[in-house]
Design goal:
The complex is a heterodimer of chains A (144) and B (135). Chain A is built from one helix and twelve strands. Chain A is mainly β and 144 residues long. Chain A has one domain: Jelly Rolls (Sandwich). In chain A, the strands form two sheets. A six-stranded antiparallel sheet of chain A has the order 2-3-4-11-6-9. The longest helix of chain A has 16 residues, at 3-18. Chain B has a single domain, classed as Jelly Rolls. The termini of chain B are far apart. In chain B, the strands form two sheets. Chain B has a six-stranded antiparallel sheet with strand order 2-3-4-11-6-9, with no helix packed on it. Classes of the chains: A mainly beta (144), B mainly beta (135). Strand 9 of chain A pairs antiparallel with strand 1 of chain B.
């Protein structure tokens, strides 16, 4: 793991360790973003950890972004998704077919990603990140 | 060997040891990411943690969750639907979670320690609806 990736993971661990506060409210409701057709992105922040849930309609492609300073973990909760990744500088590429419970994908900064729901029903992808997704430091980069 | 500047794929380890649920667990740099699949009607929990801090939310389906502070005995019952709310479970708060839908439900969890280890302390949580009052 690179130094920057390790630092990002450490930030996530620190956020978890700092989130213990039994006196505070411990229920955090997701905020929904349905601004784009065919997908709904919901997100919630707990401590310094950002958890996101993306629901994609069949056939829809989402993403085509990379981040300059955000570390992301993603996995599939339901459905079948093809994910493509490309490093924006080295141009290294990889395509994965992802299904629930099989793998957790760690995406470092400057790796663009996009996902396509190849199933017949809605697919659900979950993300953990150290910064909110789809922010001003998300840059468009077409990989799908 | 993985390229440290490119994606890394971490496989989930599967635990089928309990009928009615499957636990998927992975770890990235000390962060434990887990998911639990519940068959309809399956219930788990009735324990609390002393050191493990857990944040979780429902990935698919619906769960009924009851929490009880093991010191104050204060209870809270919550219905957790997919995409609804995330819950932070403090230490010394016991819980029980039951799948209340007609299809598989899943729970997505994020914790500072591996789940299902020696930090589980058995504690029977009686849901408010199951408690009988005496006249």
């Amino acid at each position: 793991m690179s130094c920057s990736a390790t630092r990002s993971i450490i930030y996530i661990v620190m956020a978890i360790q700092n989130m213990k506060n039994p006196e505070s409210d411990h229920i955090f409701c997701f905020k929904e973003d349905s601004s784009k057709e065919g997908r709904t992105l919901s997100h919630v922040q707990v401590g310094g950890v950002f958890m996101s849930r993306l629901v994609i309609d069949p056939g829809v492609v989402t993403g085509n972004y990379f981040y300059t300073n955000t570390h992301v973990l993603m996995s599939i909760e339901s459905g079948t998704v093809v994910a493509r990744f490309e490093h924006v500088h080295t141009k290294e590429k990889r395509e994965l077919q992802l299904k629930p419970g099989e793998e957790l994908v760690e995406i470092p900064k400057k790796v663009a990603s996009a996902t396509k729901n190849i199933g017949n029903e809605k697919a659900v992808i979950v993300f953990f990140s150290d910064k909110p997704l789809r922010t001003s430091e998300a840059f468009h980069y077409k990989v799908f | 060997m993985s390229n440290q500047n490119f994606i890394t794929v971490h496989p989930f380890a599967l635990d089928h040891s309990t009928a009615g649920r499957v636990l998927f667990a992975s770890e990235v740099g000390g962060v434990h990411v887990s998911r639990i699949e519940f068959e309809p009607g399956f219930e788990l929990g009735h324990h609390y943690h002393k050191e493990t801090l857990v944040t979780c939310y429902t990935g698919i389906g619906s769960l009924c969750v009851v929490f009880e502070d093991v010191v104050t005995k204060a209870q809270q019952e919550i219905r957790m639907d997919a995409g609804g709310c995330a819950i932070q479970i403090p230490t010394h708060v016991a819980f029980t979670m039951k799948s209340i839908g007609s299809s598989t439900a899943s729970l997505v969890l994020f914790s500072n320690k591996k789940l299902n280890t020696d930090d589980n302390y058995i504690y029977e949580v009686t849901p408010p609806s199951d408690q009988t009052s005496t006249p």
